[in-house]
Design brief:
The chain is mostly helical. It has a single domain, classed as Up-down Bundle (Substrate Binding Domain Of Dnak, Chain:A, Domain 2), CATH 1.20.1270. It has four helices and no strands. α1 runs antiparallel to α2. The two termini are 16 Å apart.
């Protein structure tokens, strides 16, 4: 522990916003993975499924780290932003306008932006 009182480690506005985006993105990536399995073919590929699950789990992890004011939140948020950006690109490229994949890509982009904002404020 770093000796700070609990109230000194309260999450910033940016962190609370990021936690909200991480939660939403995690859920949508999970839904999109199931949707893509239903579609089959290239949508159900190991690579695409892996990226969707990585993104979902990374967002969940980032949310947990921020919620408990971990000293490592910044590192986790950096990685979360990177994976979210990769997932957004993959969903856009593969989705060709599919509503679920478009929604997932948008959530990933919003989460990446929120994570980058948290890192910019020195988590």
């Amino acid at each position: 522990m770093n000796g700070l009182a609990i109230d000194e480690k309260m999450p910033s506005v940016e962190m609370l916003d990021c936690m909200k985006h991480c939660c939403e993105c995690s859920g949508l990536c999970g839904q999109c993975a199931a949707h893509c399995l239903f579609l089959g073919g290239q949508y159900a590929s190991v690579a695409h499924q892996g990226l969707l699950h990585d993104c979902s789990e990374m967002c969940s992890l980032a949310e947990c780290f921020m919620a408990r004011a971990s000293d490592h939140s910044g590192n986790v948020c950096r990685e979360c932003a990177e994976i979210c950006n990769l997932c957004a690109v993959a969903c856009d490229e593969l989705g060709h306008g599919d509503a679920m994949m478009t929604k997932c890509a948008q959530a990933c982009r919003s989460c990446a932006i929120a994570c980058e904002a948290v890192v910019g404020t020195s988590v």
